[in-house]
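User: I'm preparing a small set of examples for a lab meeting where we compare how different chains pack in three dimensions. I only have the primary sequence for this one, and I'd like the structure in token form so I can line it up with the others. Please keep the answer compact; I'll paste it straight into my notes.
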Amino acid sequence: MKFALNHVTVPRLHYKDFLDLAARLGCIGVEVRNNIARPLFDGLNPGEAGRVAKDTGVRLLGLSEVYAFNSWDAERSHAVRSLISTATAAGAETISLIPRNDGTSHGDDERRANLRTALEAILPMLRDAGIVALVEPLGFRRSSLRSKTELIEAINSIDNEDRFRLVHDTFHHALAGGGQIYPAYTGIVHVSGVSDPTLRLDEMEDEHRVLVDEHDQLGNIAQLAALFASGYDGAMSWECFSPVTQSMEDPYTELKRSFEFVSSRVQAKVA
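Assistant: Understood. Below is the structure token output for the 271-residue chain.
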């Protein structure tokens, strides 16, 4: 399995230490964020950050994120251009686009029109830079983009040229009610679990997202096994927002245990 690590899982680690941890764990790459209350790359310029990653032996799989990309305006346009520029300078492979998640823009016509407007505006930027954008449907009821199918329809309605890929997030897939998976369109898989058995799906929030283990309530193993059985061969990036996970004293041991648990269970299910 191609393991990867999102910086939000271990936000206390400096960028270089984060890369070292990923390398020790055998990860193929990392996702770096601009929203963990510190400067992107902990102040390294993008070119140097890319060189450090290369020297460490891990790929910069992506830079996150532009939020509310589907409420397209001059501010979002600037944010997308800026993130693309940073990604290009660092040698990152993708940027991340997150839909509005505040309970607005829910009407079918408005929602679909907003999504297509944004994708059409962003596509030339991606072409010029030769980079891919990962779009992540969020399963929360308040999200303006919950459906993978709706996203795929919008991507197919424009001259995409594989510049847009979707994120299969195991947490958000469960919250959205499951449904069809799209391995051929999936650019990365985000992995996290919820272990509290008392929570209903509509009560789960980012703060509940922990490392996947035998107490998982989201069906991670079934989701991942279905993706692999359908031909997905990309990275699986651990993205856990729980303060409990983020404050791990020994992240290497805890993450290694979760990697091994998932790997063994998925392989047993696929075999």
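A couple of notes for your slides: Residues 108-129 form the longest helix (22 residues). The chain has a mean pLDDT of 97.

User: Perfect, thanks.
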